[in-house]
Amino acid sequence: MSSATPIGASDSGNGPILDIEDIHVQFAGRVGLGAGLFGKKATIARAVDGVSLQMQRGEILALAGESGCGKTTTARAIMGLERPQQGTILYKGEPIWKDLRAYRRRVQMVFQDPTGALNPRQTIYESVAEGLRIHKVKGDEREQVAKALSNAGLRPPERFFLNYPHELSGGQRQRVVIAGALALEPDMIVADEPVSNLDASVRGEILALLMDLRDRLGLTILVVTHDLGLAWTIADRVAVMYLGRIVEIGPAEDVLLRPKHPYTQALLDVVPEAGGLERPILKGETPDPTRIPEGCRFHTRCPLVASGRAKELGIEEKCRGQDLALKPLDPTHFAACHAADIGQIR
After folding, report:
1. To pair with 288 at 20 to 30 A between CA atoms, which of 27, 206, 216, 279?
2. What is the pTM of this model?
3. What CA–CA distance (Å, rounded) separates 259 from 94?
4. What is the pLDDT of residues 304-341, one digit of tens each?
5. Percentage helix, strand, coil for the chain under 3-state DSSP, each rounded to 5
């Protein structure tokens, strides 16, 4: 390790807090027929296939899409749990790999399943204090644990010190997980489906807590979700992923009220908050990431192509054969769609 200032030790206050540039994460897929040893060859699954993203200080960004689109792998790459084969991830202008330990103190992850994230043999106090001990944080540990639990909405905090996870409700367990992240006083939290395992009655409470933490503590929060209804409730900006790429990104109001990509529109058509019809219009499953279609990767399921509308617009050949990167439709709203490119998305 060099003697340079560790990541997160200083900050000029300018620029994004997190800057992701063209990251690619690939995994070895199943072995299929073809050339190679014994007539078989390994395939490559392109789980994240060229994602670029910036997070600004104090914002909540929702990274949304169906299961298998690459959003959780993107989150794991951001946390340094998966190392991209290509691209860069900068935290406050420095590569996260420069000092990964210091980075993970400043950027904490909240996992999907609070029951699985907590050790059933540890008290709540021990669970929240664990990060403080790993990172050798100085100060009064009891006071730090109490403050974290209080910030997570568990008050009075001392009441929960000697409880075990099984003695708490699902919502309380998720608050404990959040408290464990808050104990290290991070700048940013990555929350992977933070309410998907909770009862509907407590989901709103956890979302309200995340928004309160952003407002009160100035936290930057990346929320990974398959539910655009959640994004509608909580996000300042929304990035929609499909098959390893972001296909639309912009302010939440623009993306959710005026979507510019057919995939975003299809997701919204099953969201009651967005005036959806509560009926799926997409057919088929997300394509295999080992066999990404040529052209626009959504064209095999796109309602514009299936209905013949793309042909009427004269873009069907482009949809089937010409890949398209994100393009600015206004200064803050981007989409990767040939129809949007010519202003023909409703």
Report:
1. 279
2. 0.90
3. 33
4. 999 999 999 999 999 999 999 999 999 999 999 999 98
5. 35, 25, 40
H or E stretch at 174: helix 170-182
Residue with tokens 């190679």: 36
- 210: nearest Cα among 192, 176, 186, 234: 234
**Residues 124-142 pLDDT 10s:** 999 999 999 999 999 999 9
d(C-alpha 73, C-alpha 93), whole Å? 22
Q: Are 198 and 170 in contact (CB under 8 A)?
A: yes
Contacts of 314 (CB under 8 A, 6+ apart): none
Give the burial class of 285: count Cβ atoms within 10 A of its Cβ; 0-12 exposed, 13-18 middle, 19 or more buried.
exposed
Q: What is the 8-class DSSP label of residue 268? A: H
Max Cα separation, the chain?
69
Three state DSSP letters for 272-308: HHHCCCCCCCCCCCCCCCCCCCCCCCCCCCCHHHHCC
Provide the CA 71 distance to its chain's centre, in angstroms: 5
Q: What angle do CA 332, 337, 343 make, to 5 degrees?
A: 75
* CA 31 to each of CA 27, 35, 36, 71: distance values in angstroms, whole numbers, following the listed order: 12, 11, 10, 25
Q: Residue with structure tokens 């997300």? A: 286
Give the distance from CA 170 to its chain's centroid. 22
- Enumerate domains of the chain plus CATH numbers: 18-32+41-341 (3.40.50.300)
Report helix, strand or coil for 34: coil
Checking DSSP bridges between strand 60-64 and strand 237-242, what pairing results, if any?
parallel
Lookup: tokens for 111: 């996992």
User: Would you give the end-to-end CA distance of the chain in angstroms?
Assistant: 53
Instruction: Classify 60 as helix, strand or coil.
Output: strand
Tokens 């699902």 belong to 170
Sequence letter at residue 214: R
Query: Which position has the token pair 């040893």?
Result: 37
Tell me which residue has tokens 């403080």.
132
Please check whether residue 135 is in contact with residue 97, taking contact to mean a CB–CB distance below 8 angstroms: no
